[in-house]
Design goal:
71% helix; mainly alpha; globular; 17 helices
Length: 319
């Protein structure tokens, strides 16, 4: 089961006094927060090599645009300029992890080592960096044993996260259970979390995502329906409903409505707008509206030029 990475609203750059920011950094940060990644990149590049927060944001932008090569370059620059930032090291590890997904077998060992070292550095600098600990859980689960992968270490790290933060620990343990294909454990962890934190949209959307992954679409829709009755404008739930519709082929009209509502919110939380446009395109495609689907796929690619899934969907429609 894919883990949910909390939105990086508390990144190191947000702690910088406004007076200490250059105009380029302030503008780039504003655009980044608005998820205007291409524009943010243009604003930040002039100061990226001299200002650590700008280099950090440029790395984040590159990751959003599926450009792992530049993500690594900028985040390496960020940790060079500020080697004491646990946040920067964590995101550098994520950039290496993204790079590893497309690396040749010859390079994979070196990149895996860099990934693990970056996350270990992040945790050493700040033992309370739970994002880095969550990333280490994934590393232990997915990496082969000869580069440090270990199911036992993954479980131990998840338990340590739970000791420090019960809420985050529930996600960590569910992720471990999912990787071990212990579906009863996944459902038990997420249902318990939903009971303990009934106001958490992330818990409910993650549980719905689990049901969707198991093709238990009725359960997913029932959970999301119940949530939307009391919180009709909740961003994560609106997106989750649309995502489930796009995958299942069910409730297509309501899925379209949910995604359009999500995109109409002043601030989207969770999925980037490009993802929502892609999902909306899938729904319109399934409804037979090829022109509408093409427009949505084109919008997704414009917002994220590295969005391979949207490019493939667009190509399937003939451009």
């Amino acid at each position: 089961m894919k883990r949910v990475i909390a939105a990086a609203a508390f990144c190191a750059i947000h702690a910088i006094p406004l007076a200490a920011q250059s105009p380029a950094l302030a503008e780039g940060r504003r655009l980044f927060d608005q998820r205007k990644y291409v524009e943010a990149r243009t604003a930040l590049q002039p100061v990226g090599k001299s200002e650590a927060p700008a280099a950090f944001l440029l790395g984040r932008v590159a990751l959003e645009l599926n450009d792992s090569r530049n993500a690594v370059a900028w985040l390496e620059k960020a940790v060079e300029l500020n080697p004491r930032s646990s946040e920067y090291w964590d995101w550098l590890g994520r950039a290496y992890g993204s790079q590893a997904q497309r690396a040749s077998k010859l390079k994979l060992l070196s990149i895996a080592s860099k990934t693990k070292n970056a996350w270990e550095k992040a945790i050493a600098l700040d033992p309370e960096n739970l994002d880095a600990r969550m990333d280490m859980v994934q590393y232990y689960l997915q990496a082969p044993g000869f580069v440090g992968g270990s199911k036992d270490k993954a479980r131990a790290m998840a338990q340590e996260i739970r000791r420090r933060n019960a809420y985050r620990g529930a996600f960590a343990m569910a992720s471990v259970c999912g990787h071990l294909k212990d579906q009863a454990c996944v459902e038990r962890e997420m249902q318990a979390a939903a009971t303990s934190w009934p106001d958490s949209a992330a818990v409910h959307s993650q549980l719905a995502s689990y049901y969707t992954s198991q093709k238990l679409y009725d359960k997913a829709f029932a959970l999301l329906d119940q949530r939307l009755k009391s919180k009709p404008d909740e961003p994560l739930t609106l997106y989750a409903f649309g995502r489930t519709a796009s995958i299942s082929g069910q409730n297509l009209d309501r899925g379209e409505e949910a995604l359009r509502a999500y995109l109409g919110l002043p601030v989207q939380v969770g999925a980037a707008p490009a993802n929502a446009h892609y999902r909306l395109g899938l729904i319109l495609d399934k409804k037979g509206d090829k022109a509408g689907a093409r427009t949505e796929y084109q919008t997704a690619v414009r917002l994220n030029p590295g969005y391979d899934e949207a490019k493939k969907a667009l190509a399937a429609l003939g451009g």
